[in-house]
Design brief:
Length: about 325
């Protein structure tokens, strides 16, 4: 770390991808510097190194105001951060995830002044809800709730039922499969709590991905959808299908009221949320996450069948957004 006392301007000459965890390190640096201190962050563009947009998102998320982007250097300034007292609800959709729920409870951090963990179980047959019920008894120190759905109605239905039941001010979705590290959730909470964005969209493409974590068909489909949706939404997003997203509960209520215009088709809910956020005019920001392969259980996604459904959702969303702009 540079000698902070002697400088008002600091050059961080380490490429972002070589930092152990770029966000954590930048965050630490931010808290060590006075408000208004200028900082230059050097990064390397191009995959598998960090892309410019991802580097900018990370620097911004860590609490800096971006002054100038002159590749491969981002000039930034430490901004004041308001320590908001927003309560958090982490919604965990789960179906046949008995091998993962212990990890969820163990690893999801406490955020803000209080965090409730809401599991929404889709008629699992492997003992998932029974294990969650045990965990509720075993962990009186944590606020854990269980909603049991009568049938497997898809992830979207589980997420939205969890959103409706949530009591926190900030809603965060985390898949039960532990492919996204729960240790990354503070980024989502702070992105919303510090008003850096109104909709935090996880992206798995900023950091190098564990080999085999994403099947090839999903990777190609995701790339195509990211391009298409960025165009439709009018804002660049690099990952449309990351399970982890965050927004204010008050915005969810507004989004639910307009969802019938474009939604209810996407069984995963990701596109409904992104298109809905754009429809409401909410700013969307990519939040980098570390993504790994599943340790237990199986994916319920079928790339070709589900790709077709997602394509239809995109077309419907595009029509709606266009008619709103011209209307
Ligand atoms: N409640 C509920 N959860 C589901 C359903 N389908 C999938 N999930 C959960 O949604 C999350 C994402 O699903 P996953 O199978 O990992 O899909 P992938 O990440 O696209 O491969 C996981 O935590 C699943 O357990 C469902 O029908 N009901
Ligand atoms: Mg998954």
């Amino acid at each position: 770390m540079p000698d902070l006392s002697a400088h008002t301007s600091v050059q961080l000459a380490i490429p972002l991808e070589q930092l152990p965890d770029a966000w954590t390190d930048l965050r630490r640096l931010h808290s060590a510097l006075d408000v208004g201190t200028e900082l230059s962050v050097r990064f390397r563009d191009g995959r598998p190194r960090m892309a410019a947009a991802d580097a900018v998102a990370l620097v911004r998320l860590a609490g800096f105001d971006i002054l100038e982007i002159d590749k491969p250097v981002i000039r930034a300034r430490t901004a004041p951060v308001s320590a908001d007292q927003l309560r958090v609800s982490v919604i965990v959709p789960c179906r046949n995830e008995v091998g993962n729920v212990d990890e969820v409870v163990r690893r999801v951090p406490e955020l803000g002044p209080g965090t409730e963990l809401i599991f929404v179980d889709g008629a699992s047959t492997d003992g998932t809800p029974e294990r969650i019920a045990e965990l509720i008894g075993e962990r009186p120190d944590r606020c854990i709730r269980l909603i049991r759905q009568e049938r497997a109605a898809g992830k979207a239905s589980a997420v939205f039922e969890g959103f409706d039941a949530a009591e926190g001010d900030v809603l965060i979705v985390l898949d039960a499969d532990m492919t996204v590290a729960p240790e990354d959730l503070p980024r989502f909470f702070l992105a919303i709590a510090e008003r850096r964005t109104r909709f935090a969209n996880g992206t798995r493409f900023a950091y190098p991905m564990t080999p085999g974590a994403m099947p090839r068909a999903n990777l190609v489909g995701n790339r195509l959808f990211s391009r298409g949706l960025s165009w439709i939404l009018g804002t660049p997003i690099t990952d449309t299908l990351c399970g982890t997203k965050a927004l204010l509960r008050s915005d969810w209520h507004r989004l639910r009221a307009v969802r019938h215009l474009f939604g209810r088709h996407d069984p995963w809910g990701d596109f409904d949320l992104l298109i809905g956020a754009a429809y409401l005019g909410l700013e969307i920001l990519d939040v980098p996450v570390r993504y790994g392969a599943r340790a237990a259980g199986e994916s319920k996604m079928h790339p070709f069948r589900d790709g077709w459904v997602l394509g239809r959702t995109c077309i419907r969303g595009a029509r709606r957004l266009r008619s709103r702009k011209s209307g």
